[in-house]
Amino acid sequence: MYEIESKFLIRGDCNNEVLNTIGTLKNNWRKTFIIFSLIFTFAFSFAQEKPNSFATLLHLEINSHYGFLIPHHTEIWALTNGYFPVWEVSIFKQTDGRKHYHYLRKYPQLGVSYLYSDFGISENLGVMHAIIPNIRLPLISGKKVSLSFGMGLGVAYLSKKFDRFENYKNLTIGSHINAAVNFKLKSRWKINSRVHFNTGVSVLHVSNGTVKTPNYGLNVPAAFAGIDWKINTKEIKYHKPEILPEKKGKMNIRIIGSLASKQISRQWDMDFMVYIGTMILSGYYNNTNRLLIGIDGVYDESVKYMLEQKEQPTEELMDVAKIGVNIGHEWTFSWLSIFMNLGYYVHNNYENDAVLYNKIGMNIQIMKFAFVGVNLQAHWGQAEFLSFGLGLNL
Whole-prediction pTM value? Predict the structure, then answer.
Protein backbone atom coordinates (compact mmCIF):
# COMPACT_ATOMS: atom_id res chain seq x y z
CA MET A 1 0.00 0.00 0.00
CA TYR A 2 2.85 2.31 0.82
CA GLU A 3 4.29 1.52 -2.58
CA ILE A 4 1.04 2.55 -4.29
CA GLU A 5 0.90 5.82 -2.35
CA SER A 6 4.51 6.51 -3.21
CA LYS A 7 3.80 5.94 -6.88
CA PHE A 8 0.88 8.32 -6.74
CA LEU A 9 2.99 10.90 -4.95
CA ILE A 10 5.73 10.53 -7.54
CA ARG A 11 3.20 10.86 -10.34
CA GLY A 12 1.74 13.96 -8.66
CA ASP A 13 5.16 15.54 -8.38
CA CYS A 14 5.82 14.77 -12.02
CA ASN A 15 2.54 16.28 -13.01
CA ASN A 16 3.31 19.37 -10.99
CA GLU A 17 6.72 19.66 -12.62
CA VAL A 18 5.18 19.29 -16.05
CA LEU A 19 2.57 21.90 -15.25
CA ASN A 20 5.23 24.24 -13.88
CA THR A 21 7.37 23.73 -16.97
CA ILE A 22 4.44 24.43 -19.26
CA GLY A 23 3.60 27.58 -17.28
CA THR A 24 7.20 28.73 -17.46
CA LEU A 25 7.27 28.14 -21.22
CA LYS A 26 4.04 30.06 -21.59
CA ASN A 27 5.40 33.01 -19.62
CA ASN A 28 8.69 32.91 -21.51
CA TRP A 29 6.87 32.65 -24.81
CA ARG A 30 4.76 35.69 -23.91
CA LYS A 31 7.88 37.63 -22.97
CA THR A 32 9.63 36.46 -26.12
CA PHE A 33 6.64 37.41 -28.22
CA ILE A 34 6.50 40.86 -26.62
CA ILE A 35 10.24 41.38 -27.17
CA PHE A 36 10.06 40.32 -30.81
CA SER A 37 6.98 42.47 -31.32
CA LEU A 38 8.80 45.48 -29.94
CA ILE A 39 11.86 44.78 -32.10
CA PHE A 40 9.68 44.40 -35.18
CA THR A 41 7.74 47.57 -34.40
CA PHE A 42 10.98 49.53 -33.87
CA ALA A 43 12.50 48.12 -37.06
CA PHE A 44 9.36 48.96 -39.01
CA SER A 45 9.29 52.47 -37.60
CA PHE A 46 12.98 52.93 -38.41
CA ALA A 47 12.33 51.72 -41.95
CA GLN A 48 9.54 54.26 -42.25
CA GLU A 49 12.00 57.03 -41.25
CA LYS A 50 14.53 56.03 -43.91
CA PRO A 51 15.98 59.21 -45.45
CA ASN A 52 14.89 60.31 -48.90
CA SER A 53 17.32 59.30 -51.60
CA PHE A 54 19.35 62.04 -53.26
CA ALA A 55 17.54 61.50 -56.58
CA THR A 56 14.15 61.84 -54.88
CA LEU A 57 15.00 65.40 -53.84
CA LEU A 58 16.43 66.59 -57.17
CA HIS A 59 14.69 68.98 -59.57
CA LEU A 60 15.72 70.30 -62.99
CA GLU A 61 14.58 73.79 -63.99
CA ILE A 62 14.77 75.74 -67.27
CA ASN A 63 13.79 79.42 -67.41
CA SER A 64 13.88 82.10 -70.08
CA HIS A 65 14.38 85.66 -68.77
CA TYR A 66 13.62 88.70 -70.90
CA GLY A 67 15.09 91.98 -69.69
CA PHE A 68 17.22 95.05 -70.32
CA LEU A 69 20.26 96.92 -68.99
CA ILE A 70 19.53 99.69 -66.49
CA PRO A 71 21.28 102.79 -67.94
CA HIS A 72 22.65 104.17 -64.65
CA HIS A 73 25.30 105.86 -66.84
CA THR A 74 24.51 107.42 -70.21
CA GLU A 75 27.24 105.35 -71.91
CA ILE A 76 25.25 102.17 -71.26
CA TRP A 77 22.52 103.13 -73.75
CA ALA A 78 24.79 102.30 -76.67
CA LEU A 79 25.74 98.78 -75.51
CA THR A 80 22.54 96.91 -76.44
CA ASN A 81 19.58 97.24 -78.80
CA GLY A 82 17.01 97.18 -76.02
CA TYR A 83 15.49 94.00 -74.59
CA PHE A 84 17.29 90.66 -74.76
CA PRO A 85 16.95 87.10 -73.35
CA VAL A 86 18.92 85.46 -70.54
CA TRP A 87 18.73 81.65 -70.50
CA GLU A 88 18.88 79.75 -67.22
CA VAL A 89 19.34 76.05 -66.44
CA SER A 90 19.25 75.04 -62.75
CA ILE A 91 19.52 71.87 -60.75
CA PHE A 92 18.37 72.07 -57.17
CA LYS A 93 17.66 69.91 -54.14
CA GLN A 94 14.47 70.09 -52.12
CA THR A 95 15.29 70.08 -48.41
CA ASP A 96 13.29 67.60 -46.29
CA GLY A 97 13.80 68.65 -42.67
CA ARG A 98 16.97 66.73 -41.85
CA LYS A 99 18.46 69.97 -40.50
CA HIS A 100 16.83 72.46 -38.18
CA TYR A 101 16.83 75.33 -40.65
CA HIS A 102 15.05 73.17 -43.27
CA TYR A 103 11.97 73.02 -41.06
CA LEU A 104 12.26 76.54 -39.65
CA ARG A 105 12.48 77.98 -43.18
CA LYS A 106 9.56 75.89 -44.46
CA TYR A 107 11.78 73.51 -46.48
CA PRO A 108 13.76 75.78 -48.85
CA GLN A 109 15.44 74.64 -52.07
CA LEU A 110 19.23 74.67 -52.55
CA GLY A 111 20.68 74.72 -56.04
CA VAL A 112 23.10 76.00 -58.62
CA SER A 113 22.17 77.88 -61.81
CA TYR A 114 23.91 78.37 -65.14
CA LEU A 115 23.01 81.60 -66.97
CA TYR A 116 23.82 82.51 -70.56
CA SER A 117 23.17 85.68 -72.56
CA ASP A 118 24.50 87.40 -75.65
CA PHE A 119 22.88 90.73 -74.59
CA GLY A 120 20.98 90.91 -77.87
CA ILE A 121 24.11 90.14 -79.93
CA SER A 122 26.03 93.04 -78.40
CA GLU A 123 29.31 93.85 -80.13
CA ASN A 124 30.71 95.44 -76.98
CA LEU A 125 29.60 93.02 -74.26
CA GLY A 126 30.00 89.70 -76.08
CA VAL A 127 28.44 86.75 -74.25
CA MET A 128 28.05 85.94 -70.56
CA HIS A 129 28.42 82.59 -68.80
CA ALA A 130 27.54 82.60 -65.08
CA ILE A 131 27.49 79.94 -62.37
CA ILE A 132 25.46 81.01 -59.32
CA PRO A 133 24.81 78.86 -56.22
CA ASN A 134 21.50 79.97 -54.74
CA ILE A 135 18.75 79.31 -52.22
CA ARG A 136 14.99 79.70 -52.67
CA LEU A 137 12.97 80.59 -49.56
CA PRO A 138 9.24 79.72 -49.55
CA LEU A 139 6.92 82.66 -48.93
CA ILE A 140 3.57 81.01 -49.70
CA SER A 141 3.19 77.22 -49.96
CA GLY A 142 -0.09 76.11 -51.53
CA LYS A 143 -1.16 72.83 -53.08
CA LYS A 144 -1.50 74.34 -56.56
CA VAL A 145 0.44 77.61 -56.41
CA SER A 146 3.49 78.62 -54.38
CA LEU A 147 5.65 81.74 -54.11
CA SER A 148 9.35 81.91 -53.21
CA PHE A 149 12.18 84.43 -52.93
CA GLY A 150 15.56 83.36 -54.27
CA MET A 151 19.03 84.85 -53.88
CA GLY A 152 22.44 83.76 -55.04
CA LEU A 153 26.07 84.83 -55.28
CA GLY A 154 28.44 83.39 -57.89
CA VAL A 155 30.87 84.03 -60.73
CA ALA A 156 30.30 85.37 -64.26
CA TYR A 157 32.60 85.27 -67.29
CA LEU A 158 32.15 87.90 -70.02
CA SER A 159 33.87 87.29 -73.33
CA LYS A 160 34.45 91.00 -74.01
CA LYS A 161 35.78 93.61 -71.59
CA PHE A 162 36.96 97.18 -71.88
CA ASP A 163 39.93 97.79 -74.16
CA ARG A 164 41.29 101.28 -74.84
CA PHE A 165 41.67 100.61 -78.56
CA GLU A 166 39.39 97.70 -79.56
CA ASN A 167 36.44 98.02 -77.12
CA TYR A 168 36.51 101.54 -75.73
CA LYS A 169 32.70 101.87 -75.56
CA ASN A 170 32.38 99.16 -72.91
CA LEU A 171 32.86 101.13 -69.70
CA THR A 172 30.71 98.68 -67.71
CA ILE A 173 33.14 95.74 -67.38
CA GLY A 174 36.91 95.90 -66.94
CA SER A 175 37.68 92.19 -66.53
CA HIS A 176 36.58 88.82 -67.89
CA ILE A 177 35.92 87.34 -64.42
CA ASN A 178 33.27 89.05 -62.31
CA ALA A 179 31.01 88.55 -59.33
CA ALA A 180 27.36 87.79 -60.10
CA VAL A 181 24.47 88.48 -57.73
CA ASN A 182 20.96 87.29 -58.52
CA PHE A 183 17.56 87.88 -56.89
CA LYS A 184 14.38 86.19 -57.95
CA LEU A 185 10.70 86.30 -56.98
CA LYS A 186 9.13 83.15 -58.41
CA SER A 187 5.67 81.62 -58.52
CA ARG A 188 5.20 77.88 -59.27
CA TRP A 189 1.99 76.54 -60.81
CA LYS A 190 1.42 72.81 -60.41
CA ILE A 191 0.73 70.88 -63.61
CA ASN A 192 1.12 67.40 -62.11
CA SER A 193 3.11 65.73 -59.30
CA ARG A 194 6.40 66.13 -61.21
CA VAL A 195 5.99 69.24 -63.38
CA HIS A 196 5.47 72.89 -62.41
CA PHE A 197 5.21 76.01 -64.56
CA ASN A 198 7.30 78.97 -63.35
CA THR A 199 6.72 82.70 -63.71
CA GLY A 200 8.36 85.63 -61.97
CA VAL A 201 10.73 88.58 -61.97
CA SER A 202 14.50 88.67 -61.44
CA VAL A 203 17.42 91.07 -61.07
CA LEU A 204 20.98 90.20 -62.08
CA HIS A 205 24.03 92.29 -61.11
CA VAL A 206 27.46 91.62 -62.65
CA SER A 207 30.56 93.48 -61.49
CA ASN A 208 34.19 92.93 -60.50
CA GLY A 209 33.99 95.26 -57.51
CA THR A 210 36.38 97.77 -59.16
CA VAL A 211 39.23 95.26 -59.01
CA LYS A 212 39.69 96.33 -62.63
CA THR A 213 38.31 99.56 -64.05
CA PRO A 214 36.29 100.85 -65.75
CA ASN A 215 33.55 99.04 -63.85
CA TYR A 216 30.11 100.62 -64.01
CA GLY A 217 28.63 97.13 -63.67
CA LEU A 218 25.66 95.48 -65.38
CA ASN A 219 22.17 95.52 -63.83
CA VAL A 220 19.56 93.42 -65.63
CA PRO A 221 15.94 93.39 -64.40
CA ALA A 222 13.80 90.80 -66.20
CA ALA A 223 10.57 88.85 -66.31
CA PHE A 224 10.83 85.08 -66.76
CA ALA A 225 8.90 81.89 -67.37
CA GLY A 226 9.91 78.25 -67.47
CA ILE A 227 9.45 74.65 -66.37
CA ASP A 228 10.40 72.86 -63.13
CA TRP A 229 10.68 69.05 -63.44
CA LYS A 230 11.11 66.60 -60.53
CA ILE A 231 13.61 63.94 -61.62
CA ASN A 232 11.95 60.81 -60.18
CA THR A 233 8.45 59.78 -59.15
CA LYS A 234 9.02 58.97 -55.46
CA GLU A 235 7.15 61.15 -53.02
CA ILE A 236 9.29 63.27 -50.70
CA LYS A 237 8.87 62.53 -46.99
CA TYR A 238 9.21 65.68 -44.91
CA HIS A 239 10.53 65.54 -41.35
CA LYS A 240 10.09 67.72 -38.29
CA PRO A 241 13.02 67.81 -35.83
CA GLU A 242 12.14 66.66 -32.31
CA ILE A 243 14.15 69.47 -30.73
CA LEU A 244 14.36 72.97 -32.20
CA PRO A 245 16.92 75.61 -31.19
CA GLU A 246 15.70 78.65 -29.28
CA LYS A 247 17.56 81.62 -30.79
CA LYS A 248 14.93 84.35 -30.63
CA GLY A 249 16.21 87.27 -28.56
CA LYS A 250 19.86 86.19 -28.58
CA MET A 251 22.33 88.98 -29.35
CA ASN A 252 26.05 89.30 -29.98
CA ILE A 253 28.72 91.77 -31.05
CA ARG A 254 30.96 91.11 -34.05
CA ILE A 255 34.30 92.63 -34.94
CA ILE A 256 35.32 92.29 -38.61
CA GLY A 257 38.50 93.24 -40.42
CA SER A 258 38.44 93.25 -44.24
CA LEU A 259 40.71 94.01 -47.19
CA ALA A 260 40.00 94.99 -50.78
CA SER A 261 41.95 96.06 -53.85
CA LYS A 262 40.48 98.48 -56.37
CA GLN A 263 41.21 100.73 -59.31
CA ILE A 264 39.70 104.08 -60.25
CA SER A 265 38.73 105.40 -63.66
CA ARG A 266 41.33 108.17 -63.66
CA GLN A 267 44.22 105.76 -63.00
CA TRP A 268 43.42 102.45 -64.70
CA ASP A 269 46.89 101.01 -64.17
CA MET A 270 47.17 101.76 -60.43
CA ASP A 271 45.93 99.46 -57.66
CA PHE A 272 44.75 100.93 -54.36
CA MET A 273 44.22 99.03 -51.12
CA VAL A 274 41.10 99.48 -49.00
CA TYR A 275 41.10 98.64 -45.26
CA ILE A 276 37.74 98.17 -43.56
CA GLY A 277 36.93 97.77 -39.88
CA THR A 278 33.37 96.96 -38.84
CA MET A 279 31.56 96.53 -35.53
CA ILE A 280 28.07 95.03 -35.62
CA LEU A 281 25.41 94.44 -33.00
CA SER A 282 23.23 91.56 -34.17
CA GLY A 283 20.07 90.10 -32.67
CA TYR A 284 17.69 87.29 -33.60
CA TYR A 285 14.10 88.46 -33.96
CA ASN A 286 13.07 84.84 -34.62
CA ASN A 287 14.90 81.50 -34.80
CA THR A 288 16.41 82.11 -38.26
CA ASN A 289 16.82 85.84 -39.02
CA ARG A 290 18.84 88.62 -37.45
CA LEU A 291 18.68 92.41 -37.47
CA LEU A 292 22.02 94.21 -37.79
CA ILE A 293 23.17 97.63 -36.60
CA GLY A 294 26.76 98.54 -37.36
CA ILE A 295 29.57 101.06 -37.71
CA ASP A 296 32.02 100.99 -40.65
CA GLY A 297 35.44 102.59 -40.73
CA VAL A 298 37.03 102.68 -44.21
CA TYR A 299 40.53 103.78 -45.18
CA ASP A 300 40.66 103.91 -48.99
CA GLU A 301 44.02 104.71 -50.61
CA SER A 302 42.23 105.85 -53.77
CA VAL A 303 40.47 108.54 -51.73
CA LYS A 304 43.86 109.72 -50.46
CA TYR A 305 45.13 109.88 -54.05
CA MET A 306 42.10 111.88 -55.24
CA LEU A 307 42.31 114.30 -52.30
CA GLU A 308 45.99 114.86 -53.05
CA GLN A 309 45.10 115.70 -56.66
CA LYS A 310 42.80 118.39 -55.30
CA GLU A 311 45.54 119.58 -52.91
CA GLN A 312 43.40 118.79 -49.89
CA PRO A 313 44.98 117.65 -46.60
CA THR A 314 45.70 113.92 -46.19
CA GLU A 315 48.23 113.83 -43.33
CA GLU A 316 45.77 112.91 -40.58
CA LEU A 317 43.89 109.60 -40.47
CA MET A 318 40.50 111.30 -40.39
CA ASP A 319 41.38 113.37 -43.47
CA VAL A 320 41.10 110.19 -45.55
CA ALA A 321 38.98 107.83 -43.45
CA LYS A 322 35.25 107.43 -43.98
CA ILE A 323 32.89 106.60 -41.13
CA GLY A 324 29.46 105.12 -41.80
CA VAL A 325 26.55 103.72 -39.83
CA ASN A 326 24.40 100.95 -41.26
CA ILE A 327 21.36 98.80 -40.62
CA GLY A 328 20.80 95.41 -42.20
CA HIS A 329 19.16 92.02 -42.30
CA GLU A 330 20.78 88.57 -42.15
CA TRP A 331 19.38 85.20 -43.19
CA THR A 332 21.09 82.30 -41.37
CA PHE A 333 21.41 78.73 -42.69
CA SER A 334 23.36 76.54 -40.26
CA TRP A 335 27.04 77.46 -40.91
CA LEU A 336 26.30 79.99 -43.69
CA SER A 337 24.53 83.34 -43.67
CA ILE A 338 23.60 85.98 -46.26
CA PHE A 339 23.25 89.65 -45.36
CA MET A 340 22.20 92.99 -46.87
CA ASN A 341 22.94 96.40 -45.37
CA LEU A 342 22.12 100.02 -46.11
CA GLY A 343 24.59 102.60 -44.78
CA TYR A 344 25.02 106.35 -44.43
CA TYR A 345 28.37 108.15 -44.28
CA VAL A 346 28.48 110.42 -41.24
CA HIS A 347 32.06 111.47 -42.05
CA ASN A 348 33.57 111.61 -45.56
CA ASN A 349 35.86 114.33 -46.90
CA TYR A 350 35.68 113.02 -50.46
CA GLU A 351 32.69 114.86 -51.90
CA ASN A 352 32.41 112.74 -55.05
CA ASP A 353 31.16 109.75 -53.02
CA ALA A 354 27.44 109.23 -52.60
CA VAL A 355 26.11 109.71 -49.07
CA LEU A 356 24.36 106.32 -49.04
CA TYR A 357 25.99 102.94 -49.65
CA ASN A 358 24.71 99.37 -49.67
CA LYS A 359 26.36 96.02 -48.96
CA ILE A 360 25.53 92.45 -49.83
CA GLY A 361 27.58 89.41 -48.88
CA MET A 362 27.84 86.15 -47.05
CA ASN A 363 29.61 84.77 -43.99
CA ILE A 364 30.87 81.22 -43.41
CA GLN A 365 31.26 80.01 -39.83
CA ILE A 366 34.65 78.28 -39.43
CA MET A 367 34.58 78.08 -35.61
CA LYS A 368 32.06 78.94 -32.93
CA PHE A 369 33.71 82.31 -32.38
CA ALA A 370 35.13 83.01 -35.87
CA PHE A 371 33.91 83.37 -39.46
CA VAL A 372 35.14 84.46 -42.88
CA GLY A 373 33.15 86.57 -45.28
CA VAL A 374 32.92 88.24 -48.67
CA ASN A 375 31.17 91.57 -49.18
CA LEU A 376 30.29 93.66 -52.24
CA GLN A 377 29.88 97.33 -51.36
CA ALA A 378 28.22 99.64 -53.85
CA HIS A 379 26.59 103.00 -54.32
CA TRP A 380 23.29 101.67 -55.59
CA GLY A 381 24.00 100.16 -59.01
CA GLN A 382 27.75 100.92 -59.11
CA ALA A 383 30.20 98.75 -57.18
CA GLU A 384 32.77 100.45 -54.95
CA PHE A 385 34.87 97.43 -53.87
CA LEU A 386 34.77 93.68 -53.24
CA SER A 387 36.26 92.80 -49.85
CA PHE A 388 37.26 89.65 -48.01
CA GLY A 389 37.33 89.57 -44.23
CA LEU A 390 37.77 87.68 -40.96
CA GLY A 391 35.33 88.21 -38.11
CA LEU A 392 35.03 87.36 -34.41
CA ASN A 393 31.85 86.76 -32.38
CA LEU A 394 32.08 88.33 -28.93
Answer: 0.82
